[in-house]
Amino acid sequence: MQRAALEKIRADIPALAHSVWFQNGGVSVTPRAIAAEQMRFMREMVERGPMHIVYPDEEYPRRARSKSRLARFFGVAPPELALMRGVSEAYQTVLRGLTWRRGDQVLTTAEEDAALYLPSLHLRDRHGVDVVKVPLLADMEAQPDAFAARTTDRTRLLAISHVTTDTGFRLPVAQICAQARERGIPTFVDLAHSAGLFPIDLPELGCDFAGILSYKWMYAPYASGALYIRSEQFEALQVTYAGGRAEAWLRYDTDTYALKEGADRFEYGPWSWPLVHTWAFAADYLAAIGLDTIWGRTAQLTRRLKQGLLAIPGVTLYTPFETERSAALVSFTVAGWDGAELTQTLRDRWRIIVRPLTIAHNGVRASVSFFLLEDEIDLLIDAVRSLAQSRR
Ligand SMILES: Cc1ncc(COP(=O)(O)O)c(C=O)c1O
Fold it and tell me: Measuring from each residue's beta carbon to the nearest atom of ligand 1, which residues come in under 6 Å?
């Protein structure tokens, strides 16, 4: 990526002036151009009134276009996307749309964010479903087999992250999903830490369902999201929550209705369309920079950070070193330091923002955005080196 292009993007993100930003995996900083788009819709609403009421001929086609732009970004047809508030809601929609019997099984990983983990445990407690956690393996070749080995004739769903939230493992999702499909097991993939980082073609990835977020690596405002449903799965998934706006038609004289045909039958209730329009704008913003460019620079920066950390005595890197096995998250521990204390100290002394690990390790997670500078990566390495030395 050209230096001038990088500087232009950085100048477009005022929040970068206040900290050294390694927490994009939480919620992203917002580029001015994307914020301006959101504000444009708010201004429009103030000046012209509620969009779909006052000028439906403009707003409804705009809604369709926003969905199409998002669908194009993920290589799917617009009817395969249902708007959601985020991955949590997308996953719940799938869980509640399937039929469960006591003793059925959900296969997941040992490192899922609450968005998948909590609904799975809740399903266990309500319906007696077993939640089986598959460990993350250092040997990527062995990972699909680790899922296969735990699959039984009671496995009803496989639900995993594309990139895990704490240690940042990128799973070989295409192989895992292909294997599950051979056994007739539907698959849900959480794209929270992959959408926006490199090109994703969902049909190629091969999952039946996916949960997508606006507010991390797609740099759109907090929060909107989507549920992808492969069209072949439309019939298998029941609508549990039917509400206003899910209907294709609704008749008061006969008390009858029909739900919409596509994945949008899972959308109900009022919606913040400015958020969705802005998310579609953000997808175009990323596409204009180029997802290959974004990924190329992310890989370069994460490699630099991992190499620097590995050279420090007392540092253990949890994220796989290979870029094809990881994404933008780099997680590590420093001997003698608690993750929360390390997070606070990096913030207090260097204005470096990371977050503590929460699942299996006591360390920190650094999220590496493509617009970070090499100097910022080196600052984190130097800060960790000095803290590691101080406790040896
Ligand atoms: C892997 C992963 N999935 C999902 C989420 C959040 O999803 P939601 O905002 O829908 O709860 C996060 C983090 O915030 C995450 O790390």
Answer: 86-88, 113, 115, 161, 165, 190, 192-193, 213, 225
